[in-house]
Amino acid sequence: MPQASPSPRGTGQTHRVQRCAAGRGAQSGAALLTAMIIVTLVAALAAGMVWQQYRAVQIEAADRARAQAVWVLQGALDWARLILKSDARGIDHLGEFWATPLAESRLSTFLAADPSTASADDGPEAFLSGFIEDAQSRYNLRALVAGATVDPLEERTLQRLCGQVNAPPGTAAVIIDGLRAAFPTPASGASAPASAPASTPAASSGPLQPAGLDQLAWLGLDADTIKRLQPYVVLLPKATPVNLNTAPREVIAALFDNMNLAAAERLVQGRKAKPLQNTADAAAFLPTNVQIGSGRASVDSSFFIVTGRLRLDERQLEQRSLVERQGSNTLVLARERVSQLLDR
């Protein structure tokens, strides 16, 4: 028997049901996609807010730690100034209290000594160390620009020092030429005009005036040469004599003609038993043909370098200060801070 064909009404209803189901499926997919986009945006915004808050906390903590470190190092510098002030009379030698370095100590141990403060375990992981160096234990490069011409004895002193540290040939000439170009001096017999300032400015075509030994790179010295010379030379604001009670044997051997390291070592060993009371006492340890020129050697000092190091968590802040002792006053002439990240 022939089968009856479906009625047009049933077919239309079926098509409408399928279209409604397809529409509802499309709407559900669009809603799901919209929800996923909204969740992604909210998560991104939340992550950005959390990162900004974390960043702000880290910056605030870093600023607070820096401010605390600066104040602690300033206190250490004031303490060093008091030590130098209390030792302002008499000779200066390596057996005095100022020459004893401060070993690394936890700051909270100092706070625990005060019963009004918290216990040592509540303090930060901060460690302080430092030491004071006699700046006049080194050869002062300022002597090379003290006059209208270079003193031949000062030139020979620098040449001997450069030879002892195995500096490249010609290093002494580079230093002398660079310093004299940076610190021009009036010609011999010439008088400055009445309207001229008290300090002589650098020549407009010359190099910048270095304020410290690290800045000798401006004169053309490489970092290795500066590192070799650093323990033995210094650049102070004015010419100063070398303290024979604190100078190393290399500086003493280079300071005088007809000297050698063996004679300088005898002086170094002799001053350990008894510090030199005056420059005449050094003659007992030096060769007979060595002449101690006036103004080139002494047994006391006015310039010192104070170094303080603060280790806080994973960072270390070092402050180096050049101070001048003027009677009962100790003035800070220069200050340099170096911050570095420690390896863990």
TrEMBL record:
Query: One of this protein's Pfam families, by short name?
Result: T2SSK
Q: Which SUPFAM superfamilies match?
A: Pili subunits (SSF54523)
InterPro entries attached here? GspK, GspK_central_sf, Pilin-like, T2SSK_SAM-like_1st, T2SSK_SAM-like_2nd
Keywords attached to this Swiss-Prot or TrEMBL record, sorted alphabetically, are: Cell inner membrane, Cell membrane, Membrane, Protein transport, Transmembrane, Transmembrane helix, Transport
Provide the protein's localization.
Answer: Cell inner membrane
- The residue ranges crossing the membrane are 29-51
Q: Which residues form the T2SS protein K first SAM-like domain?
A: 137-238
Principal place of residence:
membrane
Residues making up the signal peptide according to the UniProt record: none
Q: Which Gene3D superfamilies does the annotation name? A: EpsJ-like, GSPII I/J protein-like
Looking at the record, which segments are called Disordered?
Answer: 187-207
Which family does this protein fall into? Belongs to the GSP K family.
Task: Please give the name of this protein.
Answer: Type II secretion system protein K
- Species of origin reads Pelomonas lactea
Q: Which gene encodes it?
A: gspK
